[in-house]
Amino acid sequence: MNHFSSDPDPDPAREQAEDERLVLAAAGGDVDAFAELVRNYTNAVCAIAYDVMRDYHLAQDIAQESFVKAYRSLQSLQQPGKFGSWLYAIAMNLSIDYKRSQARKTRTYDQLESMEAAERKPSADDRLLQQELRLDVGLALDHLDETSRTILLSYYISEMTMPEIAGMLDMSVSAVESRVRRSRKTLQSSHLSAYARQYGNRGASDKLVMRVMDRIVKQAGQFYIPVSDRSRSTAWFVTHLGLSLDSNGHVCLPSGQALFMVHVSDEVLAERSQSAIPVLVFSVEDTAAFYQAIIGQGIRAVRESSPEMAGELVLFYDPDGNCYGACSP
Predict the structure, then answer these.
(1) 227, 264 in Cβ contact below 8 A?
(2) Whole-angstrom Cα distance, residue 26 to residue 241?
(3) pTM, full prediction
(4) Structure confidence by residue, pLDDT tens digits, 189-218
């Protein structure tokens, strides 16, 4: 299932079966399966959170919390095929709780907006456009009931199909279609189309997937690496570093911990590749010999002194530009 799918007539039963397969696999410890669920539902959950918060960046934060909470509670999901509607309830409850807690804080919504604007430093024209869009769309959405708002945000901004929305909200497709038709009389589609162009950033999906998986994997005492091709990266670790695979096909580190590969976009990889901070540091007997061995295999590497490690550190890079380190004990 893909909520950016171009399939004009997706099969809800097939999608529920796929959700059930992924949920059962994730509940059994398959992190890759949960990463797929996060990728499938990221934009839908952001739309739900945005409906309550009316702030795109806060909606992403709530979406992240929703997925982490869902992962911790997977064992309690009695009907794995209903993952979408179950996740909807989690996201809605967290959004409402966050909204209430936000109201009790002294920092106001306007102050938060000012801080975000200062970080983004948009032009005066951009700020005016954002304000006009936010006011125009916000006023129109306020005339709709909660379910209709969620449907429209999911349909126009998250680009979910009506059968996908029906599955998420546990409604019939005809009921969703009816809501869309009635709501269009209140809210012209051009308003949300303009809003989607301004705020509907698909590239943000993979960034949120990465943040969610980073938290989940680290809490499990494991490691993860963002990659463009899981099979290629797995083969790279086995071939060039001599690492083995565990019973689930994940790369096994010398410590016995698993190294999970999470597929992300080129945009996310480009940001990560600009960092010279190693995501993992390996212990080797001889850094000079290790350096010669990896450059002999055509791997990009550099040697530098490391006062923190009282010796030399070898930095080397995988095909996606992730940085690793190697030092002597």
Answers:
(1) yes
(2) 28
(3) 0.61
(4) 545 555 555 445 555 577 788 888 888 877
